[in-house]
Amino acid sequence: MRVYETPGVYYERADASGGGIAALRTDVAGFVGIAQRGPLGIAVPVESARQFEAWFGAPIDNGYLAWCARAFFENGGRRMWAVRVASAAASSAALALDDGAGPAWRIEASSPGAWGNKLGVRITELRRAQTRATVDPVDLARLRVTDSAGFARASLVECQAGPLRERAVLAALDAASGALSLSRPLALFAPNSRLRVETIAYAIEVFDGGRLIALYDDVSLIPEHPRYGPLLLKQPWQTPDIRQPDLEQLRVPEPDLALDYFRAARNRGASAPPAIVIRELRPQAARAALNLLAGAGGAAPAEPVRLAGGADGLAALAVRDFLGADQPPGASGVAFAATRSGIAALAPVEEIALLAVPDIHIQPRQPNPLQAPAGCAPDPCLPVRVLAPAPPPPAAVDLPPRFTLAEIYQVQAAMVAQCEGRRDRIALLDAPFDTCNRLSFSVNELRAWRSRFDTRFGALYAPWLLVVDPLRAGASPARAPTRPIPPSGHVAGLCAAIDLRAGVHVAPANVPLLWAQDASLAFDDARHGELNMLGINLLRAQPGRGVRVLGARTLSSDTDWRFVNVRRLMSMIAKAIDLSIQWAVFEPNDWHTRAKLSMVIGSFLRGLWARGALVGSATDEAFYVCCDDSNNPPETRARGQLQIKVGVAPSVPFEFIVLRIGRDANGFAMSTDAAAADA
Question: What tens digit of pLDDT does each residue of 187-242 get?
Fold first, then answer.
């Protein structure tokens, strides 16, 4: 202990963590799919259904991502990462500001998609501060003012004297002497001229289908100003250098900065991006173009100017958009962004424990057909027959393709490969749509599909679930009130809720699912038993019990890894120990370090045993930790290695409860046995 002799204040560093091991979160899910809007190829964390809609929009007919996200949160999920996929044909709706010499600014929707074609922009000129000034008799770039309140450096100002008007940039402000220094000398005014000086800024209003959704005030045209348009309205993960003169590079995201941005938002929900972004195409050239759009003298146009050119790019969607590709660490940002999408975008996210790709099963569907209003016949007695104009032709619908079974398997195999490579997550596989809509051959089709996989890091769920269709409002009465969606969103929410309430060691099954009206198929007990023994987890609607997941098996042929909760518990234990003993690297390889590691790991496993995650009447039966001279001989220590051997006995759920009822001498006797899967 340090001895203090000189009076004063001293600071000491103290590690409050204690060096223990804490259980990690296993309730975080990662989803890949089609959405109405949102960034492409970037994993975005969201923590509520409302926040998901702020990033990716409401549910759509041709995309399951929003549906599964709502199912996840409705069933108890609290945090998920979402990746939107689209083809290279996706484009952002945009409006180019042209000053006569070419585009100066490009105002575009914050993300690609046809949703941006509904956006309109109205720009209004603002004059917030004004004062009286006199041109310096010697320096025409210097003004002497009576009041400098409201003026700031890099502001755009307009000098007026009668019909003469001239604009300049305020280079410096000397409040003490009451002088304004302009970036250049005035050309229209003589020395000692008396002027009226006003600041010029702009307000940008954004409308969605005629409804005001955003207002950006005090937008400046000067690059040095803190509220410069392209700097103010940019993606939150965009580089500070916002000038991108090459139009082909406008859609290239910044992969490293995007991931760092969302990693910093781990403990808070990332705020949604702005509705529009501004790209600077030619520095110092946007002033005339913006003045034309805002109207002469600051008069705003009567109607907002619509953005155009947005496309979803669903027709050209391919398997590679769902897979992506991992790039080596030395790859350029352009190469990284060109290949990173889908599943590959979730690989760097450490906290994901559940992985699902529901939109590989997408079923193309025409949008909701709105009913046309009843026609009105003109009155023949009127002197002039006024006929209503013909309605515009419906816009072309960009429908996604219907993927084949081979393509679905390619994506699900990639999901399993990522889970097996990282060993910290499990793939929730949805059964293909065709295997879940006809009971006559569903058992055979599900058996054939299950035979494609043999992995301890995947679980297969069937059939699909019927949920209330919020898009039915205003549709034809013939449209069904419910629609089928893949079950992975509900299952992921169920896993998250059980992890948060009881622990990852509890099997995610036999709990009623919320926001589910029915299952797409009703299996009987015989078919259920046959599929359960194959490792297919069925969802069944039972009278009085709702819709429940009645299965918790993996796709492994190894009986040691039969259950989902066992695999997830072991992954959590391995990852928690790995992250928590990093401090031991380069520590002395002696008995003291080995004893400390044994104590820390043993304390962690003892806590799991106390919560029921490990079986055994005593800790000796539940786990063991070996880190001593028996597995660390001198030759091992000479190579700089430290061996730790850990064994655990995870709790295994029982699937069958057997009631034995028999007759004895005096009456009936009944006993209850709980049988495990292999009993």
Answer: 999 999 999 999 999 999 999 988 999 999 999 988 889 999 888 998 876 654 44
Q: Decide: helix, strand or coil at residue 237.
A: coil
Residue with the two structure tokens 């080596």:
328
Quickly state the pLDDT bin for 472 (edges 50, 70, 90).
confident
Is residue 177 very low, low, confident or very high in pLDDT (cuts 50, 70, 90)?
confident
Confidence of residue 606 (pLDDT cuts 50, 70, 90): very high
Distance between CA atoms of residues 155 and 132, nearest Å: 16
φ/ψ bin of 180: left (φ > 0), alpha (ψ from -120 to 50), beta (otherwise): beta
Place of tokens 């055979």: 444
b/e burial code for range 367-403 (CB count within 10 A of at least 16 → b)? eeeeeeeeeeeeeeeeeeeeeeeeeeeeeeebbbeeb
Is the pTM higher than 0.85? The answer reads yes
Q: Which long-range contacts (CB under 8 A, 24 or more apart) does 415-421 make?
A: 415/343, 415/355, 415/357, 415/458, 416/453, 416/455, 416/457, 416/458, 418/343, 418/346, 418/347, 418/355, 419/355, 419/455, 419/457, 419/458, 420/455, 420/457
Domain ranges (residues) in the chain: 29-88+314-365+397-564, 91-234+274-311
What lies within 8 Å, CB to CB, of 514 at 6+ separation is 74, 75, 493
Tally the C-alpha atoms within 13 A of residue 78's C-alpha that lie toward its C-beta: 13
Cβ neighbours of 214 (radius 10 Å): 15
Q: How many helices (H) and strands (E) does the chain have?
A: 16, 27
Q: What is the DSSP letter of 472?
A: G
Q: What angle do CA 91, 235, 65 make, to 5 degrees?
A: 60
Residue linked to tokens 């009085």:
544
Q: Which residues of 451-481 are buried (b: 16+ CB within 10 A; e: fewer)?
A: eebebbbbbbbbbbbbbebeeeeebeeeeee
Dihedral of alpha carbons 450, 562, 613, 22, sign: negative
47-104 pLDDT tens trace: 999 999 999 999 999 999 999 999 999 999 999 999 999 999 999 999 988 766 667 7
pLDDT of residue 247: 36
Q: What is the CATH number of domain 29-88+314-365+397-564?
A: 3.40.50.11780
Q: What gap in Å lies between CA 597 and CA 111, rounded to an integer?
A: 49
Strand partners, 81: 30, 45
537 strand-pairing partners: 461
